[in-house]
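Researcher: I'm preparing a figure for a lab meeting and need a structural model of a single chain. I don't have an experimental structure, so a prediction will have to do for now. The sequence is pasted below. Please return the structure as tokens so I can convert it later.
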Amino acid sequence: MNTPVSPSGPEYADGSPVRLGALVPLTRPGWVAAGRHLLAGLDLAVREVNDVGGIDGRPLELVVRDTAADPERAAAAVDELAGLGVAAVAGEYHSVVARAAAARADALGVPFLCSSAVFDALTEEPTEWVARLAPAQSHGWRIYANFLLGAGHSRIAVATQPSVYWATGSRVLRDHLAPRGGTVVELDTNALTPEALCDALVDHGATALLLLVGHPEPAVPIVRAVRGDRRLAEIMIGAPAGQPEFAEWAALLGGDGAGIPFLRYLPEHLGPLGERVGKELRERLGEAPSFVAFEGWDTVAVLAAVLRSHGADRAAIAESWPRVAVEGTRGPIRFSRTPGIGVWQWAWAPVQVVDRDPAEPDRFRILHTG
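Model: Understood. Here is the structure written out token by token.
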């Protein structure tokens, strides 16, 4: 699927576009709502670049490929996009998928700016070809663990599915909570029905249950079961991976989906740029833009600045990561080398713990910032 150049843009003397590849989950089992928001941000920014003359008089063109949360499909898409002559590849939401894309981009010598995936080990070895806007999982989830402790929760249960991403999240929480007197017990949702999971929560005396599982299955049935169990009336449900961010969550769960804290990568107050972009994104999406939509816009803003200053040569783009200085929707963006992370990293995007207000589920409450 190709996204056309904005018809409202100027006429270009040189008709050859500068192409950017975009990896986005647009079909199941990918998180389609996240993919839709990510693409909205990417596309809006491309159209705005073209409205002011493109890249040195050449239009910027987004060449979109649906990853459907499939790592092999993403790696194949990077191969295809490289063959189509893209200057760089951008996007992706799912961490395991982004890791496959990053490995292929590194092998092919194609710059990859990862928009949303948080997996710390985005590449097995340090690389000059990959940069990332989203904060690393260890950074965000430690902030979430601090929120749990501050809210008085030290007996934590996590509902899990087999996945490197969920396993890593569990380890981050356990490593951070254990020295501070916290305990983490894992409950395998492949082995437990939602009702059996409720029994296990009672047996363990957990005061918080974290959903380290996919959406909508099995997250939604688990929330319904816990909310409907009188024995668990006082338990806090949390979702550090951000499932409640999207309107689909509220539509499926209604009031049961409120009061579930999650991580969101936005500042407490957007500046003028963020406010303007947020208004445009709302009009495009027909709903409040998620932080993922802002990540998409910021991705293209970074790449457009790099293309204007360093040209479309792939090696030149990769060499430019440490010299990036771009005003994004959520603050100034610069990349650096961060201990334990093998890619160029924005350290850090703003991090919040928020939930949907039980009194008004369409409104978000900021509970903690890090």
